[in-house]
Specification:
This protein is an all-alpha fold and 182 residues long. It has nine helices and two strands.
Length: 182
């Protein structure tokens, strides 16, 4: 009987899709983002940034999402996927260490000694996205991808002042949400 193949698998000699080319073009930026995400994280003991990027790339290729607009869109998807990989890894290891998310230490009222679980932060991000997708996108671009205010403004098409206000509002909302859940 003939071997069944998955149509999304690479076939030797086949042309890579536009999606795969975009992913390859973003690979170095994804590694930079992964290093930033994992800086000071206890997950680094079990997973290196390159491992995180490779796992996220595999998941992105397997999911073959719909239309990807540009490299910025691909990086945003990669950032979300990397966060998911870390959450899944923490759950698998049952060792989600307590971390001080940089988003809290960059805001007055976010004490340096406040720590939250990776899963709690993920839940807060999902709640923020349900409450205000625009604020959640700003957080993803600034926090997950490490973009500056100027880069975030270019990526979203919003004025820098709006990005700054939404960034401050999102951080305050997350602090309140996490404090209520504690």
């Amino acid at each position: 009987m003939g071997r069944m193949t998955n149509p999304s698998q690479d076939v030797e000699g086949a042309e890579p899709t536009n999606y795969e080319r975009l992913l390859a073009a973003c690979y170095e930026d994804m590694r930079r983002v992964a290093r930033a995400i994992m800086a000071g994280d206890s997950m680094r003991q079990r997973m290196q940034p390159t491992d995180l990027v490779n796992e996220a790339s595999l998941r992105l290729i397997q999911s073959m999402p719909g239309k990807v607009h540009d490299q910025g869109h691909m990086l945003a998807m990669a950032g979300r996927t990397m966060r998911r990989v870390l959450i899944d890894e923490a759950r698998r290891a049952r060792a989600a260490k307590r971390v001080v998310p940089p988003i809290l230490t960059q805001f007055p009222g976010g004490a340096r000694e406040d720590v939250i679980g990776v899963e709690d932060l993920d839940g807060a991000m999902e709640a923020l996205a349900a409450f205000s997708p625009e604020h959640a996108r700003i957080v993803e671009l600034r926090f997950t991808l490490g973009l500056t205010v100027e880069e975030t403004a270019r990526a979203t098409g919003m004025p820098e002042r709006t990005v700054k206000r939404r960034w401050a509002g999102a951080r305050a909302w997350l602090l309140d949400y996490l404090a209520a859940g504690a």
